[in-house]
Fold:
Amino acid sequence: MKVRAARVIEALGTWTAGESGASAAAGRLRAIGADGRLVNTGQELLGGSAAAVVQVIEAQYGGLLASSASVLVVCRQWLASSDGSVRPGGTTVDVRLERGRPRWVVTMMYPARPGPPVATPSALARRVLRSPRIDLPPAAVADVMSGNVHDSVLDAMLRLATTYRIGVSVVRSGHPKYVFGTTRLSDHPQGRAFDTFRIDGRLVVDPGTPRGLVTGYMQAAADAGSYNVGGPYLLSGSGNQFFSDATHHDHVHAGFAQ
Structure:
């Protein structure tokens, strides 16, 4: 299902000269067996440039049930103008799928909407954005620039970065509003959570990544103030501070109460 979600995003956001626009994008979707009407929910990737290319950084579970799923496709995009100049961009898209035969089917997309940047980011935000040990994708950078990410999240990132090099996948935007399959608000859209998919250059989902690296990072996230740490391994802790489920086998979630 991750491959399916990623291919839809690549088809939407990559084109050569003469193939821009919604009609051409719908044709690219149909060519890979997807519904051409998905262009209506993927406008953020279409732009008005002469050519463009998408690079998928990560495809992460946003929710996983028996017959439905959310895959968060984190991407960069380069947009080329007719004069040859290139503008970098990118976003994160919450891609919804339903189980079908012979494969999962993309039914809807919700691109990130981080909001406009503030005139002057906070000191903590500037430190996070400058840190060479915190790798933020485009939507997460925009989240931090918007001023809508709580200081608890920014402070925790900086504390973790003193020990680890962290690859962040999702902060605020591009994540489901509710914990998938429930009516419970997620901490992400409230600016009170972040997900890590890579630690010290090792993917959390990779079976070859040492278990101790991931569990050590999970414990460090709790020590940095997270009340709700999820990942591929279940740690013991105070109350329900740690959790593990199918959705969190590919990343470490750190949520904050305020």
